[in-house]
Amino acid sequence: ATPAATMVGTAIGAQNGVLFKGGDILERAKDVDTVVFDKTGTLTEGEMELTDVVAVDGEQPVADGGTAAAESAAVSSDRLDEDDVLRLAASAERGSEHPLARAIVEGAEERGLDVVDPDGFENVPGHGVRATVDGDEVLVGNRKLLRDEGIDPSPAVETMERLENEGKTAMLVARRPAGADEGELVGVVADADTVKDGAAEAVGALRERGIDVMMITGDNERTARAVAERVGIDPENVRAEVLPEDKSDAVEAIQAEGRQAMMVGDGVNDAPALAVAHVGTAIGSGTDVAIEAADVTLMRDDPIDVVKAIRISDATLRKIK
Ligand code: ADP
Ligand code: MG
């Protein structure tokens, strides 16, 4: 492209809130044949809200949304109730800055529960948290977090699957009383996020241009697919349960198939993936780390601007051919 054409394209981008970091980026964007979206905060608002709290008997599933009045008769008397489960989870999550954690804490406080600061706290990235609350060890996180601690998540599986099929992120809550060898599953909490208004339209417009659209997330497969379905991404194009440090490998694997990928993300987690992508795009209120690693910054928080970026690149460079 001539320097003049590149300048015009860059200026048109800026007018539309699409900031290309340089003329070479503007040229590269037209070659994108695959767009990989991060899920949380990119396709969704990233503003979680606590939606469900279910007490679970570690030995067997208990009354879940009206399933079994009969089952509740079998419940041991010292079983925690919903408020106990939520209070434990929220107290453990007070140590975490994760959006999932903040929603749990806020939900518990809204219900007027006595949430306390944990005495000890440890983040288990991509899996959850481990904390000490009232002297007991408390775990909040995914199936793997519990399995790694030798706690069987299966009594909660039905509840988890029901919530995940609704597109919610369900988290297990377990407790190991002080001095006890074994931990026990005590409940499930779930957070939900809202899909951004422009997400489905953006995916549709990209596909119309013949661009493959994929999604990558640390969230579980079932939740990821439910969200993908809402925005029009094929289930086979979903990469779920990808650990933060593995996101860039996942993008490299996609590019190793000969694709020219644009990765779109907002978080610190996404920065390495943005850096390895053919074009890295940071969206909206993205973190500084993501913006720094990216080639393109979308000033507005609207996924439709991904289409704009590609269209501007395409139009600018076609004109001068
Ligand atoms: P994402 O890519 O969606 O931001 P993460 O990689 O941060 O997700 O986390 C992956 C999964 O690990 C979450 O879906 C959740 O099941 C679990 N997890 C992570 N952090 C927490 C937390 N603070 N509390 C409970 N669960 C968590
Ligand atoms: Mg994100």
From TrEMBL:
Cell location: Cell membrane
The organism's place on the tree of life at top rank: Archaea
Family designation: Belongs to the cation transport ATPase (P-type) (TC 3.A.3) family. Type IB subfamily.
UniProt protein name: P-type Cu(+) transporter
Source organism of the structure: Natronococcus jeotgali DSM 18795
